[in-house]
Design goal:
The structure is a homohexamer of 136-residue chains.
Chain A (H helix, E strand, L loop, with lengths): L1 E14 L8 H8 L8 E14 L10 H16 L2 E2 H4 L10 H12 L8 E7 L4 E5 L3
Parallel strand pairs in A: 1-3
Antiparallel strand pairs in A: 1-2, 2-4, 4-5
Chain lengths: 136, 136, 136, 136, 136, 136
Amino acid sequence: MRISVFRKAHFNAAHRLNSSLLSVQENERIFGKCNRPNYHGHNYDLEVKVSGEVDPVTGYLIDLGVLKDIIAEQVTDYLDHRNLNLDIPEFRDLNPTAENIAIVIWKLLRPHLDERFDLQVRLYETERNYVEFPVS
Amino acid sequence: MRISVFRKAHFNAAHRLNSSLLSVQENERIFGKCNRPNYHGHNYDLEVKVSGEVDPVTGYLIDLGVLKDIIAEQVTDYLDHRNLNLDIPEFRDLNPTAENIAIVIWKLLRPHLDERFDLQVRLYETERNYVEFPVS
Amino acid sequence: MRISVFRKAHFNAAHRLNSSLLSVQENERIFGKCNRPNYHGHNYDLEVKVSGEVDPVTGYLIDLGVLKDIIAEQVTDYLDHRNLNLDIPEFRDLNPTAENIAIVIWKLLRPHLDERFDLQVRLYETERNYVEFPVS
Amino acid sequence: MRISVFRKAHFNAAHRLNSSLLSVQENERIFGKCNRPNYHGHNYDLEVKVSGEVDPVTGYLIDLGVLKDIIAEQVTDYLDHRNLNLDIPEFRDLNPTAENIAIVIWKLLRPHLDERFDLQVRLYETERNYVEFPVS
Amino acid sequence: MRISVFRKAHFNAAHRLNSSLLSVQENERIFGKCNRPNYHGHNYDLEVKVSGEVDPVTGYLIDLGVLKDIIAEQVTDYLDHRNLNLDIPEFRDLNPTAENIAIVIWKLLRPHLDERFDLQVRLYETERNYVEFPVS
Amino acid sequence: MRISVFRKAHFNAAHRLNSSLLSVQENERIFGKCNRPNYHGHNYDLEVKVSGEVDPVTGYLIDLGVLKDIIAEQVTDYLDHRNLNLDIPEFRDLNPTAENIAIVIWKLLRPHLDERFDLQVRLYETERNYVEFPVS
């Protein structure tokens, strides 16, 4: 009786795409307007998927109120209304692409979920662009 | 040429979360406002996923009109505008969490679909909380 | 420089449609499955529209954080995870149709907003059915 | 035969709320996390409403391709992937609240639409917060 | 106690934009790919708004089940899975722009609603383009 | 560090369901109003999923601007504002069901993506009906 539960969350943040492994010219060429120096921003929509066995006593996989609190404490309170490049240590040397943000979020959440659960995150940067980690 | 087709459906129902395996105090503590005695309710959105081989003559995996009717007859006509705890025998001794509702819906649909098809259901309790059974 | 700001909120509630001014038979005939005795429920989506002059100092019409708190305290904390017919005094003798719920919400909010503001509420009972009060 | 046509557009921008008419302490108190110095950002969704008489020859109120181009040239190319506070002269001395951004957008569009048309803009800062100018 | 109720409906149709008052060259120039001879199509989303006084006995403005049936009988059963140019007499000499389709729908519905109600329709041709008749 | 990125796109097209392997009567019986001779149409929403390893230098799986251009050139410019049955050679002898359109789109895209990437497409014919190829 393995099942998945999903919880959505949200944060707003500024960022610019800029890789410390690339020259100024390469960053401009590859990232275009996403590389502009004064930042732009997004409403990031996050979907967290937790998979495992349903508890036969409660009928819950995991208490979604508990999951909501973990997401808020570990992810959205930390990233919301922040500049990812300037304010968040994880992105000091890591380009805040949607891919890398999703992987960072997964690493922030993973230690706070019991080992019997599988975890996947989906991150919408815009309505048209989103990423999922890890691959399903 | 294996493919998946999805059909969405909808029903509105009342419920309360209350496990017959827990004491009154435990039910209150675990389920909080979802345990309130006079019920609350939801607009449940259901997505049914059927997977298999496309029929080379029709170009259909399954006639979505037929699938729509199966979902209506087996699930939404049965659950819509009902009190899950009081009106639906499957929940007499089963807590109507989103997880359990999704599993019940899967069991209601499975016998009515040909064995060559795989079946998965996704159930939205709110826009922010949903479940998927079985795990993909 | 008159402008409108909108804030969305959400609550889940159980109800049944039943008018104390109609007989049992008339209630059944008019309200059909919405009249079933054991209640059903909805995810109600609420949009609150406040109109007036922008404050030239702050650039706000009204602080949306303040508006959010007023909506929570006066409306959603009061109605969420409740049975409208049994738990909410305003519906003791008032049929909880979407129309009447919207009017009740308007009356709950109006005294808590400064007189210089106009107020309108939109209430979604389902994605396909919603009401707006007062008429614009 | 007066009718309204609507066209949606989109831009992503960084901003912080900070009024030049308020002290540092007042800005912090009033705008909270929206005042943080390193900016945050949004996916702004814009709906432009143009009203007037349908042209009996074409059946168009206005060619939506033309309207789309006006919105792109005057608004979204100008604001997209920008820092509203630092990059956009209109916000040098104007706090970039949703209210003020909507008014600025209305003023950018108005001269480019024929006088026989009425114009209204709706701006979503998040899915839950939006503004409309002028009042309808 | 004037209030508005809204009901959404849906139909899928083929059309091409072509005005009988314009030459072949003008039609091509003005309507571009929308003028292609073999038609294209849309999922049209329709929102019907009815305004008036709430009935104090039922708490309804209008029975939404009745309104749903009127919309189906007068509009969606008539237009769904049709070619607007070839199959629908109203568009024999009328270009099926979103504007004209909305006006035709309004005229189809108006005689079937009591005179005490005001009527407005909103028609989405795509998620980004929609029209509203009459002007509010 | 395998990840998936998704990009949404859109096209509007006319079609009718009609299999060259079936008689006129069988086509009518199986496809009903979808078989009507003058075509109907849809707003098709397409989600393209590309999976693989994140590039450690750029932080991208694939440049979404590049992916957007591939989708436009290979799929949406080709299918948009077209009659699938009459204008698109792939459907000369292939019934343009959602299943077959999804498979055609997958085949159009596959040669333009590096072999190190996995590809899946999801195609929405309406908000309630969609397909995914290949099975995940």
